[in-house]
Amino acid sequence: MTSAGEAANGSQPTRDSEEFSGQVRTMFDRIAGVYDLMNRVMTGGLDSQWRARAVERAALRPGEAALDVCCGTGDLAFELARAVGPGGSVDACDFSERMLELAEEKRKQIERGGDDRAPVAFRWADALDLPYADRSFDAVTVGFGVRNLADLELGLAELARVLRPGGRLVILEITQPQRRPLSTFFRLWFDRFVPLLGTLAGDRDAYSYLPDSVRSFPLPDRLAAMIDGAGLEGVRWLVLGGGIIAIHSGVKRS
């Protein structure tokens, strides 16, 4: 759920900077070891339920092919693998090598346990230039990742490109509550408490950037319009967590 933060030299990355992607990657590599724990703490353990709702929106059937972009440590990808079953396939990608290492460790543990899921193939990739062929997947998901893209429109176009006609795109992301008192609580939580948690976790910079990344991200109606503009139809969104989480979904036009 967390975002990238300041660069190693202490300066915050800007989206119009050539250094943005490199700084984001470095930050995720740095926080990979505490990523899962911080997500549980910040969300009160609700992040797993939100991922489950995202998988429901993907409407996957046994034997289908799914892709999870900005996969982090793999939690959403593994839920997709359960949905498509052993006859399906799941690809997952991220540009943080450390995140992928942790995802691979989880994959090995799951395989040793003999869980009845599709295999997950993890690989390094840039979400703005996905290494997959056109029309490859029945569903594409992104969990807490599109907020970190340097070019959101290009990223959405790439997600749509690899979807088959009739395929489903699902985006799970933090959003800003618009009504009090939750909007006030949201600001207090993200502006003050989350950076404090980051300090305790050893990386205040990353978790200080999180509120800024949320504030600069499009509100649900604007994001829905952008998804529609990327070539999807029937775009809708579900707001959860009292207004702090939005799950967008749409179907690629034929």
SSE-based structural type: alpha/beta
Strand residue content:
15-25%
Major sheet description: 7 strands, mixed
Major sheet: arrangement of strands: 3-2-1-4-5-7-6
Measured distance between first and last alpha carbons = 32 Å
The poorly predicted ranges are: 1-13
Instruction: Indicate the CATH class.
Output: Alpha Beta
Strand segment tally: 7
CATH superfamily membership, which one?
Vaccinia Virus protein VP39
Give me the strand/helix succession: HHEHEHEEHEHHHEE
Percent of residues in helical segments? 40-55%
How would you characterize this protein structure?
With 254 residues, the protein is an alpha/beta fold. It has a single domain, classed as Rossmann fold (3-Layer(aba) Sandwich). The chain has helices at 20-43, 47-58, 75-84, 97-112, 152-161, 182-201, 204-215, 220-229, and strands at 65-69, 89-94, 120-124, 137-143, 163-174, 232-240, 245-252. Residues 1-13 have low confidence and may be disordered.
Helix and strand arrangement:
Layout: H1 20-43, H2 47-58, E1 65-69, H3 75-84, E2 89-94, H4 97-112, E3 120-124, E4 137-143, H5 152-161, E5 163-174, H6 182-201, H7 204-215, H8 220-229, E6 232-240, E7 245-252
Parallel strand pairs: 1-2, 1-4, 2-3, 4-5
Antiparallel strand pairs: 5-7, 6-7
List the main descriptive attributes of the protein structure presented here.
7-stranded mixed beta sheet, alpha/beta, disordered N terminus, 254 residues, single chain, 20% strand, Rossmann fold
Summarize it.
The protein is of the alpha/beta class.
